[in-house]
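Fold it.
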Amino acid sequence: MKKNYKAMVLTCIDPRCQPKINSIMKNKKLIGKYSLFSIAGSTLGITSKNFKNWEKVFWKNFSISS
């Protein structure tokens, strides 16, 4: 079953980021309404030429989430 999300969040896997992300999404009233994609380095992980496969995985996840 495909779920339609209101947002997609790209974040680092660092556990220190998670409380802040949760707080932001709660303040925006998006709890349970977003797809979360956590990857080492966050945007660096999907934009660096050194990690081309990570970029593919991100866009695959994005297409499934949208």
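The mean pLDDT is 88.
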